[in-house]
C-alpha cells in the first residue's frame, strides 16, 4: 500500500445519514425512462435549484410540496457518531481531507455546514460529473494536490466508492454500515 497523504470520503451513508425516513423530494421530478430505468443524473450534474428543474419540466405547480419535503430532509441530516473523532484523528496525523459526493445543488451547503474545514469539497453538481466518472476522481486528486495512488477513497457504494476510485488508480475501502461497520473499522491501519 502506497503512502496515504489524503483521505476522501463519500458523504451520504458514509459520513452523513438521514435522521428518520429518507424523503427524496426530487422523486417528483424524475421521469421513468425506457425499460424501467429512472432518470436521475441531471439533478446531480447541474448546479441548478430544484425550482429551476421543476420549471424546466413544467412541474412548477409541485414546487411548494417539493420545497417543503426538501427542507424537511435537509433538516434531518446528521453525522454518524464517529465522524468528528475520525476527522480530528486524521487531521492530527497530517492527512488532507475531502468529500466527494453525487448530490443535487441544495445539499451542498448542508454538507459544508456539517463538515466544516475540509481541504476540498467535490460535489457532482458543481463539477458537472458524477461518480463513477473518472473526471470526478481527477478533480478530487487535483484539489488535494495528491497523486491518485496517495489518496484513500472511503464510501458505502462498491461501484462508486470502491471500484471507481480503484480504476482511477486511487486506494479505496468499502464501508458496509448495513453489517455494522464504522469508519473506525474501515480505517484500521490509517487512524
Write up this protein:
The protein is an alpha/beta fold and 191 residues long. The chain has two domains: 6-17 and 78-186, HAD superfamily/HAD-like (Rossmann fold, 3-Layer(aba) Sandwich), CATH 3.40.50; 25-75, no CATH class. It has helices spanning 41-45, 50-56, 63-75, 83-92, 108-114, 124-127, 134-144, 158-168, 183-186, and strands at 6-9, 16-18, 77-79, 96-101, 120-123, 151-155, 171-174. It has a five-stranded parallel sheet, sandwiched between helices. Strands 2-3 form a two-stranded antiparallel sheet. Strand 6, helix 8 (158-168) and strand 7 form a beta-alpha-beta unit. Residues 32-38 have low confidence and may be disordered.
The biggest sheet, with number of strands, parallel, antiparallel or mixed sense and barrel status, is: 5 strands, parallel
Rg result: 17 Å
**What assembly state would you assign to the polypeptide chains in this entry?**
single chain
> Which term fits the overall shape?
globular
Low-confidence stretches at least 5 residues in length (pLDDT < 50)?
32-38
Average pLDDT, to the nearest integer? 92
CATH class of the largest domain: Alpha Beta
